[in-house]
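Anyone? Bumping this.
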Amino acid sequence: MLVLCLIFAFLGLLLGYAYKKLKVQSDPLVEQINDLLPQTQCGQCNYIGCKPYAEAIANNEAEINQCPPNGEAGILALANLLGKEVKPLNPEFGEQKAPAVAFIIEQDCIGCVKCIPPCPVDAILGASKQMHTVIAAECTGCELCISPCPVDCIIMRPLEKSANHWQWTDHV
Amino acid sequence: MFDFLWRKKTASFTGGIILDGHKHVSKIITPPIAKELVYPLFLASNRYAKSCVKIGDYVKKGQVIATPDSPLSTPIHAASSGTITAIEKRLIAHPSGLAENCIILQTDGLETVLEAEPCLDYQQQNREFLREKIHLAGIVGLGGAAFPTAKKLNNSQPIHTLIINAAECEPYISCDESLAIRSAKNIIQGTLIIQHILQTARCIIAIEDSKPEAYAALLSAIKTTDIQIQKVPSIYPAGGEKQLIQAITGQKIPAQKLIFESGFICQNIATSFAIYQAIILGMPLTERVITVTGAGIKQAQNLQAKIGTPIKDLVQACQGYTNHAEQLIMGGPMMGIALASDDIAIIKTSNCLLIEPLKQADTQPCIRCGDCAEVCPSELLPQQLYWYSRSQEWDNCTDYQLADCIECGCCDVVCPSKIPLVQAFRIAKAEITQKHRQTEQAALAKERFENQQHRKLRIAQEKAQQLAKRKAAIEKMKAAAAQRKLN
């Protein structure tokens, strides 16, 4: 009897400990949805980042077809996860474009730093009155830096074709 | 292009087929020096070299013209003396058919050689020194994978068996065989150096039983050493690492495991010869033996070619094309890649140039005969994988071990419906890699975005704290002033 009591007490403590230690901080569904989003943080869905959009989807406040960078494949993945119907991308929010990264035309840059705060992933390097540049490997292609530029020196460049990025396709 | 005889009878390794050899072993001819040598700075995927010469520089034979620019890169050496005339985009020997930056060397025909630093007492040298020398000589696996040899010999686990791969199982190719006949002694010297670096007790040379002359040459060269030589049946793909190990030791290497994890290491005999040249002669890797063959070439033969030589110059050295020349393949008929032009330079791993008439294959629907599964050396289910890759079910492809496909092409050969299976698998593999890359990129973006959010929050909090502090200080001062007034 005593032994049983001890075991139960121990298990109770263990459960209590596990509840404290392994407590799920955020909604797992939001995380799952967020993992299927492209993390461009572009805001084309009218939310300020991928995670807020994921939260909105989880709360049934937003449709699954509001993310242009994710494209049809992304909508399909979300539909599968949530058991919803597949819908075509809503053109209100934009259309899917070929992957591109921002590029600063350096001779035109005046060093105003206006493009630096909008960048969601800190991919623009620069200081006041110094020339800026984009770290291409970190750029998500969200285009948020384009409109703040007063001299229009930021352009979107499609990813360069090279043997390193090339892959086998149907028409070879 | 090749006659498929029938699937094999003996059980030396799983799967495989017997192919007609089409091998014309000839003496190795040295072609005239090409006017222009071309060196791409793109070595393999994610591996680049950086040019260390300028336009107008004079370089000697054996001089370094490009240094490694990524962790798994090797240096590039000039194969002849001359002047650097350009660093520009040229078509490269790659299935993409794209142009990449290349160093162009105009030869002067003098062959002025940079002074070599031979190391005859390699047994007295430590392994680190020898590995560094192999790395500086620009040696990569010459069997086709182009993996840097110095990295491969830097084993973290003990290696019990070194296998020198002389199987050369692909039809038409005979460069390793003719090299073994010509330079058996030097190959053995190179092998002893590898054995010294790895400190392995057992070393086996594996050669197909269809090469008696090369076998005899190697057998007489190993007399005073403890190296063994073993014949393997002439079944394609006996030269695959895992197949070769199974054929000579009977041990099966599990799927998704590297052979060194089981204590094996494989080196091609041409790599062994290159190591001999690098250590004993002090010469970097600037030349290799290449087979030029096929119905489209007037005189099929093996050439001692300078790496960087344009294909058209090698074709000229073989008396030019016949009127059957319709397609150009670099490598063998099973695993080679089609090239769009002969104005492309050969690279370190180019073992064969095959010039053949074009073959029209009319693909029929799959009849689910299962022949492909029977011949697959990796014991996969090609027809199942084919359905999954056609319907873009990438997760199912991964579950059916697509990653284990060695792209040997056996399934393509036996398929009665002439379905290009390997092509479908290459596309599927590329799609899966692309998906992985995108996931990684998204994870990086997510992390950076979250970091930025945290930073913004922290800055706001700090500002608020500072403001509160200042307010408190002002309050204090006001209170003190009020106190003073009272007094």
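Late reply, but here is one note on the structure posted above: The mean pLDDT of chain A is 88.
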